[in-house]
Amino acid sequence: MANASRIKVGIIGSQFQAMCHAEAFKAISSDAEVVAIASPTPGHAKKLADRYGIPRVFTDYRDMLELPDLDAVTIAAPNYLHAQMTIDIANAAKHVICEKPLCMNLAEADRMIAACRAKGVLLMYAEELFFTPKYVRAKQMADEGAFGKVYLVKQCEKHFGPHAEWFWNMDLAGGGAVMDLGCHGIAFCSWFLGRPRVKTVYAQLNTHVHSDKTRGDDEAICIIEFEGGAVGMVENSWCRRGGMEDRIEVYGEGGVTYANLHMGNALPTYSEYGYGYAVEKAPTTKGWTYPVFEEFWNYGFPQEMLHFVNCIRGKEQLQATAQDGRAALEVIFAAYASAAKGCKVPLPFQSGAARPIDLWLQA
Ligand SMILES: NC(=O)c1ccc[n+]([C@@H]2O[C@H](COP(=O)([O-])OP(=O)(O)OC[C@H]3O[C@@H](n4cnc5c(N)ncnc54)[C@H](O)[C@@H]3O)[C@@H](O)[C@H]2O)c1
What we know:
By secondary structure, the chain is of the alpha/beta class.
């Protein structure tokens, strides 16, 4: 199965991230093919299937899992479904590619990991920042010693709020900006520094703009103290006007580097009349805008999926694991606890809460 010429993939979900997955697999079509897609809303999966030439369409993902020739399934569904879907996929003996955040709580994470281990399938955590070309370049330089001892890594991801309703509903999402976007930055800082142990977490969370539609945080600053002294600073927002911002700063005693995913790759553009598409979540294409090119490649989605496909083939060692997702989730729990208490929270952090946000809302 795993060494077959092209890895056969099924996608769960048919909207935003499912499209990113389909696009990524299209870019690596000599290595993998999407053979099926499942999504409950009638017509939605069919629409994506038609666009990407996906032959099989299901409304119930469990029916898709019965396909005998499926090697792996990607999960591009709301957060509260990740755990059950992962367990169902593992039980069907398929490899799992799970979107971020890994799931709703640490008990779920442990069950997902155990189910995949029991069935001998890979649980791949789709953290594309580990594959984003600009960020990979920054890490390469850091690992070559360009900046000497790195003492501060910052990652920031901001926009004006998610595109789909369920993100605003804390029962379905589990948390606000620090969970939705911070999971990227938290995992990134850890990965960049070589995954040192997290000592403490401090977070400042607010709901500045969107309290009419969510109880979740829409603005978040999270400071992570790592063993060895380095600090990670993760800034997230669902309040930031003007489209998507995704950038890093790396400071060492011997140097510094900055990378802005969107601006450095964009074409500074002025248009009186507007045009089709600028960049993810941009509200307009009139006036000054910063259209990107090769957007999926610049995010790292095809590179990420190629790595996962090569892991399934046994050609590469998994670089984005369920453990990375679990570790980010533990920091997210600590961040909500910190914001509630107004002080640093030490790790390891344990909580029986069903969702990270509960630690903040119930304080
Ligand atoms: N890596 C990234 O940069 C990134 C970006 C966006 C979203 N995501 C993650 O991807 C996941 C999906 O987010 P999205 O933006 O695509 O959301 P979305 O609302 O655009 O799409 C969600 C999809 O899940 C489907 N779905 C809902 N219930 C389902 C069920 N029971 N069975 C099967 N499918 C079901 C919906 O029909 C829809 O197609 C989330 O976990 C989100 O955090 C990751």
